[in-house]
């Protein structure tokens, strides 16, 4: 109980510290312009290129599976029968759908366990090595 009270007192102290007046950022106008440029670039160039690439490279079943791949780990409770039906409509059967959900869920679980134990990221993509 003492730890809880101490934790609450410390949290309250830290939170109220953020309510003080802060110094203005001297390069905020520049940062806002860079942000606006990046947003415009994303909308005008990057999103259309990515959309065209996805349409050209991936077949409908693959595209449908990629769009629903994050659902089990990010919003499993919001998954609906329509989400499953979209995969069926593109040619997936129930066994394939189940396996995709199992693999995605297991991957998310193992990542969370590794994070909990403090296993550092291996950075395979940035180093160019796909094996340790």
Shape: extended
Q: How far is the N terminus from the C terminus?
A: 45 Å
| Cα Rg | 23 Å
Count of helix runs: 7
Largest sheet: none
Strand content: under 5%
**What pattern of helices and strands is seen along the backbone?**
HHHHHHH
Classification by helices and strands = mainly alpha
Describe this structure in words.
By secondary structure, this protein is mainly alpha-helical. Among the domains are: 28-57; 59-119. The chain has seven helices and no strands. The protein has helices at residues 2-17, 28-57, 60-68, 71-74, 81-89, 94-116, 124-127. The longest helix has 30 residues, at 28-57. The two termini are 45 Å apart. The model has no long low-confidence stretch (mean pLDDT 77).
Brief descriptors of the model:
132 residues; mainly alpha; 72% helix
Topology readout:
Layout: H1 2-17, H2 28-57, H3 60-68, H4 71-74, H5 81-89, H6 94-116, H7 124-127
In short:
The protein is mainly alpha-helical and 132 residues long. Helices cover 72% and strands 0% of the residues.
